[in-house]
Design goal:
The complex is a heterodimer of chains A (about 260) and B (about 475).
Chain A (H helix, E strand, L loop, with lengths): L1 E10 L2 E11 L4 E5 L6 H9 L5 E9 L2 E2 L5 H6 L2 E4 L6 E5 H15 L7 H14 L10 E2 L5 H15 L3 E5 L7 H14 L5 E5 L4 H5 L4 E6 L2 E6 L2 H9 L1 H15 L1
Chain B lengths: L22 E3 L6 H10 L4 H15 L24 E3 L13 H9 L13 E7 L2 E5 L2 H5 L4 E4 H7 L1 H7 L10 H9 L4 E5 L8 E7 L10 E6 L4 E9 L6 E4 L2 E6 L4 E8 L11 E12 L5 E8 L4 E4 L2 E4 L5 E10 L4 E10 L5 E10 L4 E10 L7 E10 L5 E10 L5 E10 L2 H9 L4 H12 L1 H4 L4 H14 L6
Parallel strand pairs in B: 3-7, 6-8, 7-9, 8-11, 9-12, 10-13, 11-13, 12-14, 13-15, 13-16, 14-17, 15-18, 16-18, 17-19, 18-20, 19-21, 20-22, 21-23
Antiparallel strand pairs in B: 1-2, 3-4, 5-6
Helix pairs in contact in B: 1-2, 2-7, 5-6, 8-9, 9-11
Classes of the chains: A alpha/beta (about 260), B alpha/beta (about 475).
Amino acid sequence: MLEIRDLRATAGDIEILKGINLTVNRGEVHALMGPNGSGKSTLAQVLAGHPSYQVTSGSVIYEGQDLLDMEPEERAQAGVFLAFQYPVEIPGVSNAYFLRAAYNEIRKSKGLEEIDSMDFIDLLEEKLKVVEWGPEIMSRAVNSGFSGGEKKRNEILQLALLEPKLAILDETDSGLDIDALRIVAAGVNKLRSPDRAFVVVTHYQRLLNYIVPDFVHVLSNGRIAMSGGKDLAHELEAKGYEWVEAASAAAAGAGA
Amino acid sequence: MSSQVETLVNKEYKHGWVTDIESDVAPPGLSEDIVRLISAKKREPAWLLAWRLKAYRGWLKMLEPHSWPNIRYTPVDYQSISYYSAPRTAKPLGSLDDVDPKLLETYKKLGIPLSEQKILAGVAVDAIFDSVSVGTTYKAKLAEQGIIFCSFGEAVQEHPELVRKYLGSVVPASDNFFAALNAAVFSDGSFVYVPKGVRCPLELSTYFRINSASTGQFERTLIVADEGAYVSYLEGCTAPKRDENQLHAAVVELVALEGATIKYSTVQNWYAGDEQGKGGIYNFVTKRGKCAGNRSKISWTQVETGSAITWKYPSVILQGDDTVGEFYSVAVVNGHQQADTGTKMIHMGRNSRSTIVSKGISAGQGQNSYRGLVKVLPKAAGSRNYTQCDSMLIGNRCGAHTFPYIDVQNSTSSTEHEASTSKIGEDQIFYLKQRGLNTENAISMIVNGFCKEVFQELPMEFAVEAQKLLGISLEGSVG
């Protein structure tokens, strides 16, 4: 479903991604780990099309399409969803209104009719259960005055509603207390399906106790330095990122 | 928000067409003779002609304001403007059936519910085409309750005592340059009188349209709510696209007697000029209300998206005790538009209260200024004002300016002023795009959220229109 080949990207003059290769198939959950500044969040943003990053070379093929050639909204309409590390506040716009607008944009792109507000309320009630929320959150302005945990729950609610094919979770665990983490992780687990792939970006192994990945990749200095199964995360937790960096440097040395 | 911001169908100013109608146009130029001609055309009584002439003579001694407003414009050539243009009809209009079908077609294009069958929509309409009122709907139904809703010209004929009593009582003919000009040459407008204790059952509405080239529009609106009365009044404006600037210098006077409430809402969408800043309406308008009686209330809500220049300060004189004045405003400038708009709240009565919520949005190379005066006089003990003044910038070439004046002359009153300036964030737009919205819809949503406190003051139908208008006005502002 997703083929990333030798992807390089810069922010301003600084190269952050230095040749990423990654293949993600339907139904798989990939964890992207790595120290601060290794490029994992940048990769998430580049896949979503954030204008602050320039792709300098490489390719990303998503469902047979050149993802890099698509506008952010086209990517969203094609089923790419990014759960933001820092969800943005939109004052004055109610959460319900925003969610319905987003839902309808996705429907319209598929040639479906827009949903009316009554049907949408019913749909929303179902989706709210995924994140164990009541309807009161709907009348509040989008993320305005939300706690860190509420913002992340709101992201997962949108994930549940928009039903993407590829969900990228950018440090969804950061800033969450243990209860919020459990709710968010449980929400994600309910949304796992054979048709949906996840890329879970996280700094800590903790989240992966709840969302168990099929593959774990470790980024270091803009490249994937190491890949493995779910046990890699545990090994990483025990040995630290320095171990990966040392191992990767040794491998690079041996290669040369 | 209750309604979806719809896909923006219209890429350009959509009211930019001209109706091909024969008009009765006065030759360009302004003189005592023209003032007399207008008055004669309208078969006005001698006192009104005298009032006009006095205004004209006062105007001659006044100067066009250029120093204090934060707007730049070439002085208007008052001798090149025609001061009277009326669609030519054989006889005075008796009912809607007498109106030129082409005119009705025009209003249909504008989407104005002029026909009587729209009564279910609950809107009564007076339509001003160029300078003349062409038809007032639902007059009979309103008359059952003693409500007078008619053209200004008709009011002069039918209710001269009311007109004479209140005309100029809030905005004197000598008030300012443009008010004096209007007093001299105003050709029509709307008149509303709601009698004691009557709650007007319909939203009263006026649509203004400038059609003829080189005509100015100088309408005058007078609304009087007698003791305990309530009225809600809506005003909408459009004009065709023309290369030259056209002048609109209107006056609106509101009088609220004891316990009365007047709610006045405007959606102004005059032609704003092209991308180079050529053409567009000069909108120099004086709007003022007087809470003359105790416990009266006047509320202004305006959404200003059009005009090359907007110069406008809908104000409230809080004369009675326990009176309430409100001003809710959204002003949008894009392209080369300039707006200097705000309000004056003059507290005279005890425990008078005022609220000002101003939302300025600047895009393109637009310049937007809020100018507001809160004045609390010594006798106005226990008065309160709350002012909130927010600016939003879209892009790097526009400007937002705030000029608040606060003058409190007693020790028991309080005023609060909150101001903010924000830039529409790339991150906000990206967030919404990541959820499937295109850039225009994303901006529309962010801006509508920013304006929410004002839109919720508008009657439902108008709020939806205002939202759409805002989206259209800001099209292409981020590229």
